[in-house]
C-alpha cells in the first residue's frame, strides 16, 4: 500500500488543473486502485491511499496526475507494509 502526500506549491495553477485532477482520481477509484482520498489539514494539499500496484506503477500514476504534472503540488510517496488491520481492511495485509 502507498500513501501519496500532495502538497501545494502553486495554488494559482490549481483551477486550470482541477478538472484533470478530479478525472485522475475518478479513474483510480473506478479501477479499484485508490482506496481513500482527502484533504490535508489547513488546506495544505491532499492525500491518496493506493493499493495493488507496484512502486513503479504508483510513481507513473502519480506523475500523470495533472496537479503533479503542472506543478500545482509536490508528491511524496510513502510505501507501507501493513502487518495488522481491522477485519474490514484485512485485504491490505495480504
What is shown here, in short?
The protein has 94 residues and is α+β, with helices and mostly antiparallel strands. It is built from three helices and four strands, in the order E-H-E-E-H-H-E.
Task: Annotate the secondary structure layout.
Blueprint: E1 2-8, H1 14-30, E2 34-39, E3 45-50, H2 55-64, H3 66-69, E4 73-79
Antiparallel strand pairs: 1-3, 1-4, 2-3
Question: If you had to describe this structure to a student in words, what would you say it looks like?
Answer:
The protein has about 90 residues and is of the alpha+beta class. It contains 3 helices and 4 strands, in the order βαββααβ. A 4-stranded antiparallel β-sheet has the order 2-3-1-4, with helices on one face. The longest helix is centred in the N-terminal third of the chain and has 17 residues, at about 15-30.
Amino acid at each position: 500500500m502507498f500513501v501519496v502526500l500532495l502538497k501545494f506549491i502553486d495554488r494559482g495553477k490549481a483551477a486550470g488543473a482541477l478538472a484533470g485532477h478530479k478525472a485522475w482520481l475518478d479513474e483510480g477509484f473506478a479501477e479499484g486502485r485508490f482506496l481513500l482520498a482527502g484533504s490535508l489539514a489547513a488546506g495544505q494539499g491532499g492525500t491518496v491511499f493506493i493499493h495493488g500496484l507496484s512502486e513503479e506503477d504508483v510513481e507513473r500514476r502519480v506523475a500523470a496526475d495533472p496537479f503533479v504534472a503542472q506543478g500545482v503540488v509536490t508528491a511524496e510517496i510513502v510505501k507501507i507494509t501493513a502487518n495488522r488491520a481491522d477485519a474490514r481492511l484485512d485485504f491490505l495485509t495480504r
